[in-house]
Amino acid sequence: MRNYRICIVGAGLSGLYAAWLLEQHDIQDYVVLEARHVLGGRIASFGPAGGRDSLDLGPTWYWPEYQPHLQHLIQQLSLAAFPQHERADALWERAATAAPVRGPTYAAAPPSMRLSGGMSALTDALRRHTPAARIITGQAVRQIRRSDEYVELDSENASGAITTWRAQHVLLAVPPRVAQHLITFTPALPAALADDWRNTPTWMAPHAKYLATYDRAFWRDAGLSGKAVSASGPLGEIHDASTPDGTAALFGFFRIPAQVRRRVPDEELRAQCRAQLGRLFGSAAASPVDDVIKDWSTDVYTATAQDLLDGGQHAAAPKVSAASGPWHACLTGIASEWSPQFPGYVAGAIEAAERGVRRLIAGGVNVGNETSP
Fold it and tell me: In terms of pTM, does the model score above 0.85?
């Protein structure tokens, strides 16, 4: 049995930010348990780990004017940012047999911003500010039990071995629906709360991205922004994914439903995407240096069967905890879906984690330096 004052379940952005906040408050008696063998959750990159040319396979943009708390954190961590390339023409594809229509791009206002090194630069920076011994990967939490004085968590590693952890409070940094699907709560959560979590779609769960890299951003030479909208190709929306440091890339969101994608081999899907980019941006676009598909619907720690049916829209935030009963004041949801302002967004993970940690501290968590064996 391993004892801690606080256990954070999940080392995505909300879990890592919660750990960072605890460190800022001089609270060190905590542990972060992550089911995957990598950190970041739904923030994932293609390219060299920690490199400035890393490209986003998960969330890509943020908006400083609308999301000041996220912007403040980015500044605190001294991360570099740049605007999405949009000030050139866009393309509209109405049919695969017809030439695309070209027209001016209506740039976002305020501009969509990206981080140098991708969104992984944010999770990497938070990880560097968190003691490595506090984050344990490859531990999938399967059961959470409430006893008279503690909360006990059983986690399973890749070999099936079970480890039990004991804490006074659990910060749940996994999506509410995933928590309900993968974790057994004993005693059961209040029925209304369990239904609330179960019925909250997980953002990105049914979605997939295609990313292609090139030697240079040749579409820019033609006065194109890299943005395209299609009613006929496998990709419904395409954007320039290039970095300021020289990596040229395009990415697109699939318009093919997850249930259909699962029946098509990966290489066939990539061939269809290359053909579509060739139709839109010329023959050079059909021959990328490299390409990859990230299908979040196949990630068991992101998507459930229900997510593939309800579209994965941004939903209203569910309740973060039980109002009374055995789970009151010992279990708090802090993943992005629990954010009142930005549920599902990167900024939502920051808001939900901050609210959860603030709530925990207000409830009387000791802020001393005591650590557990």
Answer: yes
